[in-house]
């Protein structure tokens, strides 16, 4: 049984009240859908993983030792596909205690992480609009370790494990977020 986007969105709203976290979830969904399209994967499944990957972040107080594990419980109870649940569990290796090994897992880790770098890059532009951001700015900021220091660049680089070079990955991700910039408030 496939769970609709509307149902997933309603579930997310039950667990996420922080506006920035909600925007991050929407951005992650958009990027995952775009990457799934590029790779010929299931856009709905990949988008759902992007949308719901942080569903437990407020419940767990962002404790990286358990973040993702509560999501497994929530999504299992609701009947989400095991592949979606697995990718969500594996986006935080610290809690799972396992290393990512599947394309879906690498994609979610890379996609959800690049959204943070794109948001941070947007904030240094004078107009603070996604429409103004260029992909080259994102790849340039990747090299600046002090910029958005909490963004795990090694996760973003997992794009190469799914066969997409960083420049192309940044371009696809930025475009996906620009297409929903009104929803994101940027």
Helix and strand layout, with pairings?
Blueprint: H1 5-15, H2 19-39, H3 43-52, H4 69-78, H5 82-90, H6 93-96, H7 103-123, H8 135-143, H9 153-156, H10 166-179, H11 181-184
User: Mean pLDDT across all residues, rounded?
Assistant: 94
What is the fold named in CATH at topology level?
A: Hypothetical protein af1432
Task: Give the oligomer, counting copies of the same chain as homo and different chains as hetero.
Answer: single chain
Radius of gyration based on Cα positions? 15 Å
Give your account of this protein's structure.
- Helix 2 (19-39) runs antiparallel to helix 3, helix 4 (69-78) packs antiparallel against helix 5 and helix 7 (103-123) packs across helix 10 (166-179).
- The protein has helices at residues 5-15, 19-39, 43-52, 69-78, 82-90, 93-96, 103-123, 135-143, 153-156, 166-179, 181-184.
- It has 11 helices and no strands.
- The protein has a single domain (5-179), classed as Hypothetical protein af1432 (Orthogonal Bundle), CATH 1.10.3210.
- Helix content is 63%, strand content 0%.
- By secondary structure, the chain is an all-alpha fold.
Summarize this structure briefly.
The chain is an all-alpha fold and 186 residues long. 63% of the residues lie in helices and 0% in strands.
Characteristics of this structure?
single chain, 186 residues, mainly alpha, 11 helices
